[in-house]
Design a protein that fits this description.
The protein is an all-beta fold. Helix content is about 0%, strand content about 45%. It is globular, with a radius of gyration of 13 Å. The structure holds FE2/S2 (inorganic) cluster.
Length: about 100
């Protein structure tokens, strides 16, 4: 079923940090950039079976902890090798102290 789902309290996601969120059969990475911008992407790196929630968030990218490939937060596109395939991006919003994801 499509629609918004409550993911976590907004305060749980600090600037320049990422959190894992699982919903149904999917796993996501929720990101708050240094500028406060919210981003939700597929949780698993397209290069390998590594979760991005342990990755570094900075300058508009998230860096995979395994081989340091990077994705652009704005659209999930690849930003540094060895990543060469993008990952999907999803709407993420803060409302009344909670984060809501629309997994589509
Ligand atoms: Fe992410 Fe290799 S598993 S860069």
């Amino acid at each position: 079923a499509a629609g918004w789902v409550a993911a976590c309290p907004a305060a749980a996601l600090k600037p320049a940090n990422a959190l894992r969120f699982d919903h149904g059969k999917k796993t996501f990475v929720l990101v708050r950039a240094e500028d406060g911008g919210l981003h939700a992407l597929d949780g698993i790196c397209s290069h390998g079976n590594t979760h991005l929630a342990d990755g570094l968030v900075k300058d508009g990218i998230i860096e995979c902890p395994k081989h340091n490939g990077r994705f652009n937060l704005a659209d999930g596109s690849p930003a540094r090798a060895p990543v060469c395939r993008g990952i999907a991006r999803y709407p993420l919003e803060e409302r009344a102290g909670s984060l809501y994801l629309n997994p589509g």
